[in-house]
Design a protein that fits this description.
110 residues; alpha+beta; 2 strands
């Protein structure tokens, strides 16, 4: 319900999302899709998130499906639709690839 999300200016979006997430997941590692009400959560989180697609293959690639406006401001551009290896500097690609592989293995498809 919307009472889980306060509209107070003194509470950061991260605190609010963490509270929402914790209530929705209960004792599980992650909430299920059915537990998340997009009408409640999207206005709060959308500017602050990145959604990635895992592109299967011999070497998995990751495509930024959505880059929120706050994240795009940090990056200096909206990289929605780009693959990780198209925008991450070559010296950092292996490290970022490894982090995304760990996350995609641990979390799985959502």
């Amino acid at each position: 319900s919307t009472d889980l999300l306060a509209t107070r200016s003194d509470v950061s979006p991260l605190v609010e999302v963490t509270r929402y997430w914790t209530v929705r997941k209960g004792y599980r590692a992650l909430p299920g899709r059915i537990d998340i009400n997009l009408v409640e959560i999207i206005p709060l989180v959308l500017p602050h998130i990145m959604l990635l697609d895992v592109i299967p293959g011999e070497r998995r690639h990751f495509r930024y499906r959505l880059v929120g406006t706050e994240v795009a401001d940090i990056f200096g551009a909206d990289y929605s639709g780009y693959r990780m290896d198209e925008i991450v500097p070559p010296l950092l690609q292996e490290q970022v690839q490894r982090a995304y592989l760990i996350l995609s293995h641990w979390i799985g498809p959502f």
